[in-house]
Amino acid sequence: MVHRNSGLLIILVLWVILLSASLSALPARAQSTADPLVLAFYYTWFDENTWTYDKLSDLPAEQYVSRDRGVMGRHIDQAKAAGIDALVVAWYGPNGNQTETNLTALLEEAAARNFKIAILFETDSPFLGGDLTGALSHALSVHANQPAYLRADGRPVIFFWRNGIYGIDTWRSVRGAVDPGYSSLWINEGVDTSFLSVFDGHYLYSNTWNPPADLTYTNQKFASRVAAARESFGAGKLWVATVMPGYNDVRVRPGVGFATDREGGAYFQRSWNAAIASNPNWIVITSFNEWPEGTYIEPSAAFGNQYIGLSAAGSSQFKAGGGGGFAAAAAPPPPPPPAEPATPVPTATPRPTPTSPTAFVINAAGLNLRTGPGTDYEVLSILPSGATLPIVGSDPAFADWWQVDAGGTIGWVSAGLVEAAGPLEQVVAVSFVPLVLPTPTPAANIVADVISIALPPPAPARDWQITPFLQWEK
Fold first, then answer.
1. Would residue 40 be called left, alpha or beta, if left means φ above 0 and alpha means ψ between -120 and 50 degrees?
2. What domains can be seen in the chain, in order of their start residue?
3. pLDDT given for residue 32 in this prediction
C-alpha cells in the first residue's frame, strides 16, 4: 500500500512538472483592443558617440549601443518590470538605415522573452523618399508577420509620428493601396482628430507644453474629441492617453528648448492620474529612452530605477480599473546626481511656461515663425516641436494667425498648426500694417550682372537622430 501510494505520488509530481513546462511554453494570450495596454516609445539609434553631457542632461545607468542584442534583452526585461506590454519602436523605413536592422533583431529578442513590439512610423524619415506605400507595405508584410509583433483583435498595430505633414486625402489613398480592408490598426498623432476619418486611433506624442495643472484638461479634451470622432466616423476609434515623466531639451535646442521639471517623480504621478481619468483604451509612455528630449524612464545615473518603479505602480493602477487615482509606490530614492564634466557645458535657460491669464499657443510640430500673418512673409525662425509661446496679439483681418513672443522675437504663426489655450477673448487686438518698400526707379544704361551663387550644402540632420528638422507651412 505504501509503495503503491509512493508510485502514484511520483507520477503526479512528474505530471505537474510536465504541465508547468507546457504552459510556460505557450504564447501569450492574444491582445484585444479592450485590454488596458500600456505601451512605451523606444529608440534604436544610439551609438558610442551618444553619451555626452554637452547634449544630454542625464546619462543611462549603463551606457550602450542600440545594435547590441544584449542591451535589447535588458531593455525588454526592464520594460516588463515597468508594467509595459509593448515597446513602440521608431522606424525610418526599410532602406539604408539602422532602425530597420535593429527592429528585426528586436523582434527576435522580444519573441524569445514573450514580449511585444510595434512600429512608430517616422513619416518625416529622410530614407522614405516619399514612398509611404512601399514602406508601409514592407512593415505589414515583413515585420507585422513576426510572432512578437503587437496585434489587437488580430490586427497589427502601427503608430504614426508627424502624419500631419500629409493631408487626409493622401493618407486615404495610401491606406486604400496598402490596407484597403483595414486589417491593421493605425494610430494618428497630433492635435487634429479629423485624421480619424482614415486612422483608427489618436494620441499626443507630448503633452508637457501645458502647465502642470492642465494635464487633466488636455487629456479630457482629446478624449472628448475622439469620442466625437466615433460619432462622426463610426465606432472603434481608440483614445491612447500619453504619460510623461517630464521634458528637457534645452541642450539639444539651445535658445528655443524648454524644460518641464520632473518634481522628484510627482509630475509623472500626476501624468498617470490625468491619463487614467480620461478613460483611455490604452496608455503610451513618452518615453522609455528618448534621452535628448529628457523623457526617458530607463534607469539613469541621476534617478536610478525610480521611474521603472513608478511606471509599474501606474500601470498596475490603470489595469486594475483606474479608480482612486495614482497611489505612489515606495520607489527607491534616486542616487545623487552625477558630477558634471570638468569643463561645464553652457545650457540655455528654460523658457517659463505661460500661465493664466496669459493666452498661449503650443507648437505641436516644428513650424515657421514669420514676420507677418501669411506664408508670403519672411521666416524669422523655425520653432521646435513642443515650444510654448505667449500670444501677444491678434488681427481680426487675419483670423487664421496669432502674433506671438518667441523669446523676445515677435512674429506670427499659423493658427491651424498650433494649439491655443488660455483666455483667448482677452488677447489684445492689433492692426497689422505690412511694410511696403518703394519701387526703385530703374537707372538708364545699367546692365544687371548675373551672379552665380554657390549654395551651401543642406544643414546636417539632428546629431542624435537622422531626421532633418522639418519646416511646416500653413
1. beta
2. 30-319 (3.20.20.80), 360-426 (2.30.30.40)
3. 82
